[in-house]
Amino acid sequence: MDKIKRSYFMVNKIYLFLLFVFLLTVNAAAAFLGVVAVFLLLIFARRVPLEPKDDYRFETHIYKVKSEYDLKLDIWYPNVYSDKYPTVFFAHGGGWISGFRNQPNNVSWSKYLASKGFAVVSIDYRYGLNNSMEDILSDYSDALAYIRENAADFSLDTDNLALMGLSAGGHLSLLYSAYYSFCGSVEKMKGIKCVVAYYAPSDLKEIFKKDNKSLFARFATMATMKGLPDEIGDVYDYYSPIQWISTRMVPVFIAHGKMDNVVPFESSVRVARKLKKCDIPYKFFVHKNGGHTFEFILKDFKTVSILENTVNFLKGMLKNESRFQVR
Questions:
Q1: CA-wise closest residue to 282 among 177, 188, 140, 167
Q2: 8 A C-beta contact, residue 139 and residue 95
Q3: d(CA 85, CA 214)
Q4: Rounded to an integer, what distance in angstroms lies between the CA atom of residue 309 and that of residue 288?
Q5: What is the pLDDT of residues 196-239, one digit of tens each?
């Protein structure tokens, strides 16, 4: 079995290499973007190992109208009726320059969480290639405001909210909660009980460390930030969640694979240390053999355990009264 896996791994590597060589003869930029596109498609098509087989109802809503296109969100519902569901506000990954709310891996997460009794709001946001990080954060904030304004119509309990995201989406979730809790904004933090961040960058400068070999991560971060960290270091600091974590932060669930070669594992280690220093409740689950997006790739006991602990954390947090208050 190991030989078969290694053979499959090599075949896929050769496939990407041949694609790269072909595109390189046409255009160097096309070569890079072509390989990245294949890599992302392979990830986007995957699913979490505990995805339920049942069908789950969802609704699509436009939360923001832009001149170029409308920004949408999907609301996934449990199959058990309630007039008010605890809600997970979910942001997809993709390096801020790719991904979308209803790609298979995000739908997989939405169905899994809905099967556990949560309504899941899965959002789209503008990409960093043609927009700024501030634009992306504006979309994130506006989507959150939209579901709060329409909570009664959508049967959402926005007094019991969890912010959740994968990779770049985890960054947005951490940054929103860390920044607005640091600022003491009761309005922005209303109802937010916790954050769940899977393999999320917490210090954007770490993407450019020598031991991080991901060209995609560097390109995506540079494109979104509109410069390199040695050119605009203060801007990188401003949009790094770890800079804003304080004693006012809500509880956090962190999951990261030690073999991650896209977002450095150390990013989550440093967040955990900062949360501990600020006396903030947190859970930190590590998959020692996991890479980036490990929960879509590995089907082992540890992966399943991390998924189950994610749900247990959400259930515990969304039953409690909000910890957030201005100090």
A1: 177
A2: no
A3: 39
A4: 16
A5: 999 999 999 999 998 898 999 999 999 999 999 999 999 999 99
